[in-house]
Write a structure and sequence with these properties.
CATH class of the largest domain: Mainly Beta
Distance between the termini: 23 Å
Number of domains: 2
Shape: globular
Structural class: alpha+beta
Helix content: 25-40%
CATH topology of the largest domain: Jelly Rolls
Number of strands: 17
Mean pLDDT: 96
CATH superfamily of the largest domain: q2cbj1_9rhob like domain
Order of helices and strands: EHEEEHHEEEEEEEEEEEEEHH
Number of helices: 5
Largest sheet: 8 strands, antiparallel
């Protein structure tokens, strides 16, 4: 299962990110690729400049922290530092799965996220294509919107033929390792939140709330 998060970043945040990235140096993305991904990765990534990166991280992490839909779906335990990737004409990223362990062995990758930073009509190609049990899903969202999906999914980025594709990427270790369990919890939590807003004192609301809490307690991996 994958979900889209519209307007994760507001226009002011997007503008600030573009201001910070203006004139910044991007380097060959193969420098951060694993052995398998190195063969199919053709993009550029923002050079490691700690002060600049920290300013960018603060903007994105503040948005994640305040987004209830993201928290409900990902149930994030640890979140990796963002990578900023650029695709110019002729660049692409072939089929791959994300590395299972990141941060120098510090955390497992359960959930992946792509935040789109350029408007979709400003470049051609560059769709994120995620393989699912129901076929390939192509994702190309408005600037500031994000897609979140299981890290074990095979996916690729189609070749950019015009313009520039700019995205921010991160990975999470979830409190719940199994993607099927996370999907059930997400669906239950959406129903729970609706009931808590519309019928907070009803017994069925209390039952759903208890069930969600106890399933999360049962499945949480700490």
């Amino acid at each position: 299962m994958l979900i889209e998060i519209p307007e994760l970043l507001n226009p002011a945040q997007l503008q600030k990110i573009h201001e910070l990235l203006e004139g910044a140096k991007f380097v060959d993305g193969k420098l951060t690729a694993g052995m398998a991904a190195e063969r199919v990765k053709h993009n550029e990534e923002l050079e490691q400049k700690p002060e600049l990166l920290q300013r960018l991280y603060r903007i994105l992490m503040a948005s994640l922290g305040h987004n209830a839909r993201f928290r409900s779906f990902a149930l994030p335990y640890r979140v990796a530092d963002f990578i900023f990737a650029r695709y110019q004409p002729g660049m692409r990223y072939g089929d791959h799965v994300d590395d299972p362990i990141m941060g120098g062995g510090k955390f497992r990758t359960d959930v992946s996220m792509t935040v789109f930073l350029n408007e979709p009509d400003s470049y051609e190609g560059g769709e994120l294509v995620i393989r699912t049990p129901f076929g390939d899903q192509k994702v190309k969202l408005a600037a500031g919107s994000a897609v979140v999906y299981p890290s074990r999914s095979v996916h690729h980025v189609a070749e950019v033929t015009r313009g520039e594709r700019l995205v921010a990427l991160t990975w999470m270790q979830s409190f719940v390792r199994d993607p099927g369990q996370r999907e059930l919890l997400f669906e239950l939590d959406q129903a729970r939140e609706h009931l808590l807003r519309t019928a907070p004192d009803e017994e069925h609301t209390k039952a759903v709330d208890r069930s969600y809490a106890n399933l999360l307690r049962m499945w949480a991996d700490l």
